[in-house]
Design brief:
Elements (H helix, E strand, L loop, with lengths): L4 H6 L9 E2 L2 E2 L4 H15 L5 H13 L8 H15 L5 H13 L8
Antiparallel strand pairs: 1-2
Length: 111
């Protein structure tokens, strides 16, 4: 039987565990909590198994030993990679959405 999402999240391996303070999750910016929520929601809706996400996150963390990116930047890259890998979004659509977010401009004709 698969562990519940809450248990899987709270029991993540040390090398990928979530930032906490006094046992509570720590988010430095609103986008971090949104990225966290998206990953959890996609897992809970059956889009991927939690260990798959953890493996992607571990890879992102290992690829950045100098810690040039924040934990949640690595989290977001992991989520994006897994979403593309699972066919939830294409590379081009991800690039388009990223650009829309960065510029604040959205072309509704493309949707």
């Amino acid at each position: 039987m698969e562990k519940s999402a809450d248990r899987q999240i709270s029991n993540m391996p040390e090398e990928v565990e979530l930032p906490r303070e006094n046992g509570e999750l720590v988010f430095d910016a609103p986008w971090e909590s949104r990225a966290f929520g998206m990953a959890v929601a996609l897992n809970e809706s059956g889009k991927y198994e939690w260990p798959e996400f953890v493996n992607h996150l571990a890879g992102e963390i290992k690829s950045d030993p100098a810690e040039e990116r924040s934990y949640y930047e690595k989290w977001l890259y992991s989520l994006a990679d897994l979403a593309v890998e699972r066919g939830l979004i294409s590379e081009s659509e991800l690039d388009q959405r990223t650009n829309e977010y960065a510029t604040g401009e959205r072309n509704d004709d493309d949707h």
